[in-house]
Structure formats: C-alpha cells, structure tokens
Amino acid sequence: MTGAAPVWTALCPLDALPADQGRAALLPDGTAVALFRLHGGELHALGNLDPFSGAPVICHGIVGDRAGVPVVTGPLGKQTFELATGRCLEDDTVRLPVHDVRLTGGVIEVSARRNTVETLVG
Ligand code: FES
Asked: Of 40, 45, 72, 112, which has the fewest Cβ atoms less than 10 A away?
C-alpha cells in the first residue's frame, strides 16, 4: 500500500491570522511552517526556513504580488518566493516546501505532507 493519508494539524482559528502577514507555527514532527492568509482569503503554508540563510524567517517576509501572482519576499529583501508553489523567482533550483492547507469549522489545518521535495537548505 502506498500514499498514507496526510496528517492534518489544527493550527489556529482563521480570525487569528491577520491578512497579508505571516505567522510561524510548528507541526508535531517539528517542522516549522510559515502560514499566510491573503486579503482575498487564500491560505498558504510554506516551510519557514529561508533556504539561503537557514534562518526561520519566512514568516516575517513581505507579502505582495508579481504580475498578479502572490509572493512573499524574505525579510532580507533579496529573494522572493511564489506562495502557491514555493518557487524562488531569483533561483529556479530553490523551492520552499509547500504544505496543503484547509479550513475546518473556521480552524486552519495544515498537512504534514509536503507538495514539493526540491528544497535546498544551506
Ligand atoms: S511569526 Fe513569530 S517567529 Fe515569525
């Protein structure tokens, strides 16, 4: 049998997450995620570790858009990542891990399963 069901972790009520700002959270396995709620209601969860510095700072990034595509720019202002895919716009070989997010009864839940595995750290 393959493809174990994703494990969902309840993180916080939707209302606790300000629009267009990141918040850090830890999954039970110790994975640090950066959670974003866009003003349009879209939710994204990405790995919180900045692949370039190795520091857990993606949650402090600046949310914006590039040609209509939602992005987060790391707090150092150098690298920008697509929120939906984790792709780094400056370096196509680098991606942030992307987690599935869902809303259950007004509570944000994040999956431990990563959509991408191409993360380079360090
Ligand atoms: S949101 Fe608290 S450490 Fe980034």
From this structure: 40
SS3 state of residue 64: strand
Which amino acid is located at 80 in the chain?
T
DSSP state of 56: B
- Tell me, in angstroms, the distance from the centre of ligand 1 to residue 9's CA: 18
Q: What angle do CA 34, 39, 42 make, to 5 degrees?
A: 60
118, two tokens: 């191409």
pLDDT at 18 over 50: yes
The confidence score (pLDDT) of residue 115 equals 58
Instruction: For 24-41, give the DSSP string.
Output: EEE-TTS-EEEEEE-TTS
Distance CA 56, CA 47 (A): 9
Number of the ligand 1 atom closest to the C-alpha atom of 48? 4
Mutate to test the pocket of ligand 1, among 21, 23, 36, 53 (most ligand atoms within 8 A of CB): 23
